[in-house]
Amino acid sequence: MRLGLSLLLSTSCLLALPAFAQQAPAGPTVGNPANWPAAHSNGLIDPATEKFVSALIARMSVEQKVGQMVQGDIGSVKPEDLRKYPLGSILAGGNSPPLSGDDRSPRKEWIDTSRAFEKVAMEDRAGNLNIPLIFGIDSVHGNANVIGATIFPHNIGLGAMRDPALIRKIGEVTAIETAASGIHWAFGPTVATPQNDRWGRTYEGYSEDPSVVASYSPQVVTGLQGPIGTEHRIQQGYVAASIKHFLGDGGTTDGVDQGDTQVDEATLAGVHGAGYPPAIEAGAMTAMASYNSWNGVKMHGNKSLLTDVLKGRMGFDGFIVGDWNGHGQIPGCTPTDCAATFIAGLDMAMAPDSWKGLFESTVRDVKSGKLPIARVDDAVRRILRVKVKLGLFDPARPLEDKADAMGSPAHREIARQAVAKSLVLLKNNGVLPLKASANILVAGAGADSLQMQTGGWTLSWQGDGNANSLFPGATSIYGGIKKAVEASGGKAILSADGSFAAKPDVAVVVFGEQPYAEMRGDIRTLEFQPGDKQALAMLKKLKAAGIPTVSVFLSGRPLWVNPELNQSDAFVAAWLPGSEGDGVADVLVGDSAGKPRRDFNGTLSFSWPKTAGQFKLNKRDPGYDPLFAFGYGLSYAKGGTVAALSEDAGIDASLANTTIYFTKGVAPAPFSFATDSKVTRSAVDGPATQEGAQLLTWGAAPATLRIGGGTLDLTREANADLSIQISYKLVTSATGKVQLLMEGGANKGAIDATSLFTGETGTWRTAKVFLKCYAQNGIDLSKVTAPFVVQASGPLSFAVADIRIVSDPNSSICPGAAQ
Ligand code: BGC
Ligand code: BGC
Fold this sequence. Notes:
Blueprint lengths: L46 H13 L2 H7 L1 E4 L7 H4 L4 E4 L14 H15 L12 E4 L17 H7 L2 H16 L5 E2 L23 H16 L16 E5 L13 E2 L3 H8 L3 H6 L4 E4 L3 E2 L2 E2 L4 H11 L5 E3 L17 H6 L4 E2 L4 H14 L4 H17 L19 H14 L1 E5 L10 E5 L6 H5 L22 H10 L4 E5 L10 E7 L21 H11 L4 E6 L7 H6 L2 E4 L8 H7 L71 E4 L8 E4 L4 E5 L8 E6 L4 E6 L6 H5 L3 E10 L5 E6 L7 E2 L11 E7 H6 L9 E7 L3 E11 L8 H4 L1
Parallel strand pairs: 1-2, 1-11, 2-3, 3-4, 5-7, 6-8, 7-10, 13-14, 13-15, 15-16, 16-17
Antiparallel strand pairs: 8-9, 12-17, 18-28, 19-22, 20-21, 21-28, 22-27, 23-26, 23-28, 24-25, 24-27
Helix pairs in contact: 1-13, 2-12, 5-14, 6-7, 6-14, 14-19, 16-19
């Protein structure tokens, strides 16, 4: 499968930073609790629980206490490890499989895994105190790691609904489906208030406006955890919530993931902190520390904010969990050694693969007094308190056997409502609603793509590699439209590439971003499809054929789509709607006379950019003037249309492209394609496009092909297992050595890629070479000026059609190593 990854740019792919990206002066780094709102944890402390916890703590060894404070990931810890290392918690990271080994598994495998760990934690053996584990997972839009779950719209879509009551129901369903999978703890809600749409986690936030975040956070906490005061909640189908990421995750400069939030204390508290006090009042049991810094100081080490503000001023009585090895980013710490984070106020470190080392070094630090025992006892008390309040000390878990809870019709109905309510109508010149009796072409890459509908944090970490068959019970947007029109004598024809045999009455073109999550979702500018405007080309083609078009845009953020808006008769922002495509049809398809069945309700919870460069101004800066303001949204009842928009991107658009090095016969800006004079070149047909490829022929002398431009830092991409994908066809097999390399940094080697350039001739093929192989072969990935270079020492001839960065670890290779 070829992934159109044009938007999966990473900010770490830095083309020399323009001047506007330079920082404001650093501000304060120590919070003053008096400047923060006071709050109070409801429902967490009661005398009986505290007494039980005190008695337990009195019996615990240092090792048993430290064990409670360390969380391992099920990809790196096995049940039997718990006999030696008494960890208090396990998590399933985005890519971490249950014990069966397949990350994409149904409920049963997750329960078996939960039980296998629990069994060892609770087994009778000498010295064991039988303290139950708490098992956490990223149930951030439903329990979307598990096959068959109901998958809700990501938070950005939920923000557009402005419906706190529905948010609570979504929390309840998420809790039921998480508990039914044997898991006790959801790593959500994200209560970030994202201020820069370039951030790849924008979609995890409800709104750029703190008041929307604050109106939702207590409702989702109540939905997940149940009403305050209920005892033993988990048995009734509730799970612990985790308000995250504390604090300032949505405010980093340039929207860089894990970056630095350079704001004053009032902004940190009022904009980024707004979701916390109401969630704490609602009884939130846990909070997750953030990767980002505040004015240069990492949150995992900021005692004034973790301890004095969160636990002190805001009265938070639950426990603070760290983020994935986030403690290791504190200066002086490593993932396996970090007393500083516990001293700052972290109660449980997320030490996915580093748990063993962190356990050992922390035991050492407690014994030497470096980490005071009073701090340890406080952390353990908070963790045990949550375990008691969750009912984990009680054996019965009736929901675990409720197989029919997953993706039940009642749950899907709630998700469908949320989809319908979250759609925002940006433009309509009258083509919507669609007549149910019409003949509708449903076109575009997203028309029948559940992975584009569901986005990141779905089945896998980044949400890609998920075929429709992995979503039993789900409905694509095409599927929803088809059901809606066929009931009234209409017809829906699926056509991913936009071609048609008979001219349809209207085309619904579903397009947007390919799935991404943290890091990989960071982009350089707000331009949609930089370097390769496939959706625009389809819209133009349909328009030229005289077919009215309705664009349904699937995205994790507002993007600059003025050219696409101009080519569309109607344009709907559908965000990342999840598993229930019927909700889209409910609003788009009217009755057979074309009267609406249901009106649009959604309004923007994030303002929409006027140019691709509008991120230069912070959303709250004076003079910020978006195309569509916060709160914009048309409806059938109100009407309203949009005049032709400027197609000036407002920024050097080529800045945006960091991942497509060659496509359709050319290197898109800022890259350029060059060969030594010894290589002959001519345009030839590509696998799908006429003249969409270049034929390159080497003679006897060594020569080079080079694609260069900009300066890229590809180190983070290499860590995330991304690859360079080359679509090519051998004309004559290589007779000498062929090497792949990059230029720019201090390079000491090259990949021997001869195997890729020998063998069968005459057929198009795809090779995916891990970026990490470049590093392993001595290439410096931190300052790349030419990301794709081929050196051949002798005769060779091949045609090349496409070269780009993709994520497909399962079919990527290291050619040198393969030999
Ligand atoms: C993310 C968190 C997530 C955790 C566990 C981190 O990388 O930042 O949001 O809960 O991993 O998957
Ligand atoms: C994510 C995990 C994921 C891991 C992959 C982390 O940053 O939060 O959930 O599985 O990276 O390496």
